[in-house]
Amino acid sequence: MARPASGTILTVTLADGARAFRLRFPAHGRRQEQVLHERPGCECGCGGGWNERTARTELGNILARVRAGVWTPPDAPVAPDAPVEVPTFHEYASAWLARKIEGVSGDRPLSASTTAYYRTALTLHLLPFFARHRLDQIDRRTCLDFKAHKLREAGELRHALDAGADLRDKRNRRLVPLSASSIRKVIAVLATILDEALEDELIDRNPARGKRMRVRAPKPVRSFLELDELADLLDAASTQDALPVLPATELAGGSTRARVARRAAAGHTPGEIAADLELAKATVSFHLARLGVDQAAGYVGRRGVIEILARGGVRASELCDLRWRDVRLHDRDGARFHIRASKTDAGVREVQMTPDLTEALVEHLDRLRRAGQPVDADAHAVPNRHGGRIDRQRVGAIVAQAAALANHQRTKRGLPPLPHITPHSLRRTYISIALLANNFDVKWVMSQVGHADSKMTLDVYAQLEQRVQREHGRSFDRLVSGARRELSAAREPVASTSAAELLSRSAGLVG
Predict the structure, then answer these.
(1) CA-to-CA distance for 121 and 117, rounded, in angstroms?
(2) With 0-12 CB in 10 A as exposed, 13-18 as middle and 19+ as buried, what is 352?
(3) 302-467 adopts what CATH topology?
(4) What are the CB-based long-range contacts (under 8 Å, 24+) for 120-129?
(5) Does domain 89-213 have CATH number 1.10.260.40?
(6) Could you report the per-residue pLDDT of 282-312, keeping only the tens digit for each?
(7) What is the CATH number of domain 8-68?
């Protein structure tokens, strides 16, 4: 039978007079040693406060664990952490943006547009003010000073522009003062960065949060088009897409003017005409002006852009990314297209197409094919002039140009102009029409436009209710008109009729 393990305790007096108890015992085939200190608060890992009795008790516990085969050497004492060097705002913000772009911080990598916005907010606004500040030096007063600086800067610029000053940046672009909404967004970026610094335990609190950092911004007026206004906008875009109609006499012959005319009537751009005929662009422009052609810009699908935005309710970015492989046109009753990439998970969806939108896209596809644009499965449904991806700024310009022409035509007919129109206005227009057409089925409309939150849909719903309830005003007028008729028909001029009696009588006219 094996001899049971035993151990010894060696007591040593240290230089400060405190004792140390060296516990020696066999384990794992070799002699082990564990030191316990009498000094209270010992940082070696033993905890301190040991004496002979407690040291002997601990030796017994250790030997019991050795016999049971569960003893393990104590962990080596952990050295205290060296003080963390707090980075500057510039250093931390740069690293923060890199993590966001790669998707390390957050649930997904940043989109190109969001990345561009963060870079602009940092480069133009945050870094010029905070770059050299260490994170722990940014306090509430510093953040309030930044807010005051941006508000004062915007106010001074606005005052200078009102006085007629022509102020420009390094790229010779006209300076525009920051709006209250833009200042609020910049402060939100600052607060987001400091939130992560707080999680990294580099600061104790986030000084960019709190009531005093808020900036009151007026709620933007967001509207949508009436049905007749949308019809005028679509007609204007169709007019802009139409090929120039030239007399047959201008198309006949072999003169330079006739050759330019034939290509302009086929939808070629001035640059394409110049390259095809080996002419200078100035020469082509001269002949186009003599022919009365304002622009020979080629087919760009202006009506297609507005049809998809207004009849499909998609975002501008979703329109830019739409490809023909995602569009189902062969089934007129089941026509639809898939949104495969969106800013939200709910935005990835299948959009049902109306028969008129289907017909418009079939015509758009045919025009693209005849214009020599790519129409294969991987081609963009609404391409740019070179067949590639159109950008959101170009989409906004197409909508604005169509609205300008529609306003010109409405003015000639004595109608009021359209409200300010953006691609997002057409998305709201789709929501309003879809709610009316589907008996205010909010859930279905949300699925069509890719909303996880019903806030925007219900906002349009509230505006739509106000428009639908215009009959209330007519009912009010009928009550007053009925009372007037009662007074006119009174046979006895002296006898007066009370207002309550008149209203009760005229109420029957309304019912």
Answers:
(1) 6
(2) middle
(3) hpI Integrase; Chain A (1.10.443)
(4) 121/185, 121/186, 121/189, 122/93, 122/97, 122/189, 125/150, 125/186, 126/89, 126/93, 126/186, 126/189, 126/190, 126/193, 127/89, 127/90, 127/93
(5) no
(6) 888 888 888 877 654 556 688 999 999 999 9
(7) 3.30.160
